[in-house]
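re the bet — no i am not wrong, look at it urself. input seq straight from the record:
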Amino acid sequence: MSRPRLRWDEVLLRVLPGDSALRRMWAGTKLIGLAVATIGWLLLPGWGAAVTALALVVAALVAAHVPLSVLPRPRWWLVGIVLLGAVTAAVGGQLAAFVQAFAITFGVVALGAIVAWTTPLAEVADALLVLGAPLRRWGWPVGEWAAACALGVRSLPMLLDEWRVLVAVHRLRSAVARRVGVLDRGRAALALPLRALVMTLRRAREVGVAVAARGGPPDPGRKPVRLHGADLAALTAIIVSIALAWLVPA
């Protein structure tokens, strides 16, 4: 019996099942690597950064054992926007710069998605607590920040589920509004962002009440950091990619 195909919007910001080299890495290593790579590629744009960004995406997909069924299928309008941008850049004589910028942007977004697919949300707060430990010397509320980030990232999947329900209701109302008129359809489309805002505020209030009933956000304790060979390999790959971006001219 074949396994059901997973859609990318069903696993967005959710950890994929299974074990992999990226899954065993410390969350702080992935956060540091993603931040350093993004800053390095943006400061040193060019063919070196573009090629290494795409190469790291392919290597991360293989190391994470990401199934092809969860990879996003670009919508036709998104492809049209990219093609329009490429044509406009070609007319202006900047096609090479457009391709480089698109490759770097795709690499950063794809690596961020892979980090989300291989990192439990609870480990993100622990990693932020460890990385922000030096700031405690200056009296910065690192524990409160880590707790707030933990609540925020854990609420994202819930908000995505609520958004899907809201969009489904909007589509049903739009189907009925087609019989009414274009004006009613326009009003329904404008009301969708307002409904999303109200839904988000309502959920935030419920989470705040639940946290207050439990005595406030807990101060997460620091957990021991265990680095593996995959952590060193990932950081080395990031450093090599930045070095190539610096050596290879634009």
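see?? The mean pLDDT is 78. told u. also Residues 42 and 104 are 8 Å apart (CA to CA). so pay up
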